[in-house]
């Protein structure tokens, strides 16, 4: 496993701050442009959000997020998925276990009910 040491430069901090300001600006523009119409309102919001995303992905944090995504996809490709037959067998095992456990708990409940109410307390129903 590779050890990654992150050193955040002031340029990266400035990029992240600018991206945050673009998000805030997009939300502000959305509400301020309400009188101009929905197309202008949504256009301003989407344009500023796209700029914020683009700026974020040029920072070191954004690049490491992209790298994490690539590594995750690579790991998912290594997974050996069960066949349909194996999936159906395991599902059957789970259902059988649930039925057996339900019967066991029901029998335990009825036995305790009989012992406590009929034998100990003498309450006949």
From TrEMBL:
Gene Ontology annotations of biological process type: intracellular protein transmembrane transport; protein secretion; protein targeting; protein transport by the Sec complex
Residue spans crossing the bilayer: 16-33, 39-57, 87-107
Subcellular location: Membrane
GO CC terms, sorted: plasma membrane
Alphabetic keyword roster: Cell membrane, Membrane, Protein transport, Translocation, Transmembrane, Transmembrane helix, Transport
Gene Ontology molecular function, alphabetical: protein transmembrane transporter activity
Subunit details: Component of the Sec protein translocase complex. Heterotrimer consisting of SecY, SecE and SecG subunits. The heterotrimers can form oligomers, although 1 heterotrimer is thought to be able to translocate proteins. Interacts with the ribosome. Interacts with SecDF, and other proteins may be involved. Interacts with SecA.
Function comment: Essential subunit of the Sec protein translocation channel SecYEG. Clamps together the 2 halves of SecY. May contact the channel plug during translocation.
Family named by the database record: Belongs to the SecE/SEC61-gamma family.
Name assigned to this protein: Protein translocase subunit SecE
Source organism (scientific name): Inhella gelatinilytica
Underlying gene: secE
């Amino acid at each position: 496993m590779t050890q990654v040491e992150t050193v955040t430069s002031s340029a990266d901090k400035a990029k992240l701050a600018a991206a945050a300001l673009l998000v805030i600006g997009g939300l502000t523009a959305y509400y301020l442009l309400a009188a101009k119409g929905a197309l202008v309102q949504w256009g301003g919001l989407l344009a500023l959000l796209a700029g914020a995303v683009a700026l974020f992905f040029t920072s070191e944090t954004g690049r490491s997020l992209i790298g994490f995504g690539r590594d995750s996809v690579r790991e998912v490709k290594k997974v050996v998925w069960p066949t349909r037959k194996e999936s159906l067998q395991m599902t059957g095992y789970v259902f059988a276990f649930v039925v057996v456990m339900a019967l066991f708990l029901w029998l335990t409940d009825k036995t305790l009910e009989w012992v406590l109410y009929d034998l100990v307390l003498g309450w006949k129903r």
